[in-house]
Amino acid sequence: MVISIVTAIRDRSNEVLLGRATECQALREMVDSVRSGRSEVRVLLGEAGIGKTALLAFLRESAADCTVLTAVGVESDMELAFAGLQQLCAPVMDRRFELPQPQREALERAFGLSETGSAPNRFLVGLAVLGLLAFAAADQPVLCVVDDVQWLDQVSAQTLFFVARRLQAESVGLAFATRSPIDGTAGLPTVAVGGLDDVDARRLLKSTFPGRLDTAILDRIVAEARGNPLALLETPKDVTVMHTATATAGIEERYRAQIAELPEDTRMLLLVAAAEPVGDPALLSRALAHLDLKPAVIQPAYDLGLIAVGTRVQFHHPLARSVAYRCATGAQRRLAHAALAAVTDPAVDPDRRAWHRALAAESLDEQLALDLEHSAARALQRGGTASAAAFLTRAVELTPDPALRTGRALAAAEAHREIASFDNARRLLATAALGPLSDLQRARSAQLRTRLAFASARADGDADALVAAVPQFTAVASQLMALDTTLATEAYLEGLSAAMYVGRIAGGLAVEVAVTARAALAKLSPKAPLDLVTHALADRLAVGAVEAMPAMRRALDALKDSAGDSGRGWFWRAFPLVHDCLIHETWDDGWRDISAHAVQSATGSGALALLPSALLSRAGAAVEHGELATASALVAEANDLAVAIDYAPLKYHWIIVAAWRGDEAEVTRLATAALASGRARGEGRVIGLAHYATAVLNVGLGRYAEALAAARSASEYDDLGFYPEVLAELVEAGVRGENRAVAEQAFECLRDRTRAAGTARALGSLARASALLSSGTEADALYREAIAQYGGTPLRIQAARSHLLYGEWLRRNGPATVAREPLRIAHQEFVHMGSMAFAERARRELQAAGQKTRKHPTVVGDELSPQEHQIAELAGQGLTNQEIAGQLFISAHTVEWHLRKVFTKMGIRSRRELRKRFP
Known about the structure:
Layout: H1 2-8, E1 10-11, E2 16-17, H2 21-35, E3 40-45, H3 52-62, E4 67-72, H4 83-89, H5 101-110, H6 122-139, E5 142-147, H7 154-166, E6 172-178, E7 190-192, H8 198-208, H9 215-225, H10 229-233, H11 239-244, H12 251-260, H13 264-275, H14 281-290, H15 299-303, E8 307-309, E9 313-315, H16 318-326, H17 330-343, H18 350-360, H19 366-381, H20 385-398, H21 402-418, H22 422-433, H23 439-460, H24 463-481, H25 485-502, H26 509-521, H27 529-543, H28 545-561, H29 569-574, H30 576-585, H31 591-605, H32 610-624, H33 628-644, H34 654-661, H35 664-681, H36 684-701, H37 704-714, H38 723-736, H39 740-757, H40 760-772, H41 776-791, H42 796-813, H43 816-833, H44 836-848, H45 866-876, H46 881-888, H47 892-906, H48 911-917
Parallel strand pairs: 3-6, 3-7, 4-5, 5-6
Antiparallel strand pairs: 1-2, 8-9
Helix pairs in contact: 1-3, 2-3, 4-7, 5-6, 6-7, 8-9, 12-16, 13-16, 13-17, 14-17, 17-18, 18-19, 19-20, 20-21, 21-22, 21-23, 22-23, 23-24, 24-25, 24-26, 25-26, 25-27, 26-27, 27-28, 28-30, 28-39, 30-31, 31-32, 32-33, 33-34, 33-45, 34-35, 34-36, 35-36, 36-37, 36-38, 36-44, 37-38, 38-39, 39-40, ...
């Protein structure tokens, strides 16, 4: 029937749809690009009936030589995880045996083809779909067409948006159609589909009713339809009605009128078909038999063009399906769902059967509520938090026992909070409050309300509400202390983390929270990582860095020891900020390992919300190691994933990478935005981060007055994690900016902290700061010590800075020739790392020392894109294409495609040569 729509509005003069020359050309170009070996994505955006479905049909016709995979979002199917994805991938599932075993097993568990093993890793599922499409495209180009994306289940939508951002060179096209911008489509190429102009609208209407409409009627219909093709095509076929109607109804009302005139049995058939989202003719036939309906009852609906049955049951338009379901009475819907439940195999599809039974239920039913609870557990295992929330919500509605209803309402509320469905979570909390609450349930309700208040304030950008929510965590923790000390400790840690996030916006609030937590926890003996970390952070904020150093060291050691303990995975997922802070407050060198475990934990558990933050943490470690291209790629990766899953991690991580790269325009842009947003939204930590990045940039550029001003602003609040680095910038900017008093004051604080830490990193920072404030042989010895200390760490960028400062000091205090070696080392290192502001500073010093250098040096991989650089590094480490693909969430085919470009750009021919260039 969809093809008939295309035929009706075809412009035979140029074989495009009427009024859609631009859109059709864009879709043709997409197909041509896919045929040539590239991957393309398009999002068709427009109101209901505007022609998106017809354009998708045109796209399928244009891709006759491609493998075309289709899926349609169905409103009643939104609660079932992976339903849409399974619909799309079904024709190519035979290629799953070519996938690596972990990916194949994850895909089979997600689609219910295997009940063995643990919950499917959602990123393995994403990679499996990526691989599936890549293998299918090896035979011929693949075109994926997904209509009504707004009605896809959340997990399928997120996976497809993930795949859309990872496709590059697989000869795969993805076309999405949706009514309005939805989570995950931001940044994808969009084709806006608007209404037809009056000329094309008249042409379409005349082609539908040749010679039957006078001008007045035609003008009225065109004006009324506002360019909507479906509104024009669905004009009542009875011309008498058109002449006598005083006002025409909308498209949905027209479908409603058509359906209302059908025989009762035909209406029931349409209702069952609308309630059965799979489109399985055999299932529909069994359901009709269960209702004692004959197959012939379809004929009146078929004659009107409302529905067609072939290999799948298809409605003329998604709106027709929606109207067929909504215009039925509640009793009729229950009857339809009961029939579908009766004929759905409980062994093959227990969750869909439970959902149909739930929608058919007329009264409270504990067994059914229990079945839904089990379905929710299975949905969570498949990564379907949204599905679990829906199952639990319906279970609450069907639970007769008030106590059980309360427990399920709390579980459902928590599931809704995790998917940012805050209004539903609040309603379920209100439901829980109506039942008998135990003391523990009452405290957990309060904890959930606090989490909702904080999350809502962040989402709304409400600084006052954000600050007000922070002390509520400690109030909840106090309630929990007498009931469950583990939950109480977790609540105190939530409060400390929230206070760290708000930072300077709330003044001394972090200290108040820490003092309260410290007093409450004093009676407990910390043993588990959660306990040690919470005690350590409370100490750090309440009594200071030096006094808290032993506790923080113990906490960090406990975290490292538990890194391989999968049972502690929840902790890593809940508090990513805490880990980075502990690393830097203790001057430890283990950031790479910590962040690598965070990424592994995220991918291993399918924790969507953690992965962007984990990748950003890994990017921070890459910066310290001088891997700025890798850091850039990781930040881009995190941003892509955040958009795909509609997750908003801590902003402006790119500003640190840009500062070390010396990108003044980017740092200025981001810092300006961060300062404005931070103040308005209550993101105090972001404000400190922007000032710190500005200081680093200006130190690199040799603008010490500007660097000093930025560092002083950053130092107005003790932001855990990067404040130690702010002190180091203050010393250098103060000495070079001729404000020795500020430098000495910062040095005193830095000295106390670094001595308490005692690590090579800390002692290197102390020696370098001491050297800046010293002279003569003492300064010389201190610079050498700094170089030696940093040389024993992986902090390549700080080692290069130490060489630069030493070379600058030597040039001013001795023979210029002596300064050349440390300056040459610094220059080469900064150039290789891509830290161009510091490289230029070193170049100028080298030139002043009498050695000529190139102003714009060529470096290894300097023409490579960030992703090419990252792939080259991983290949240089000996990883296979499949292993690289798994780390970067792309297909092995894309890895090979990038490596070919790397070889060409670098003038090499083998991985052996690559290993020499990227040791």
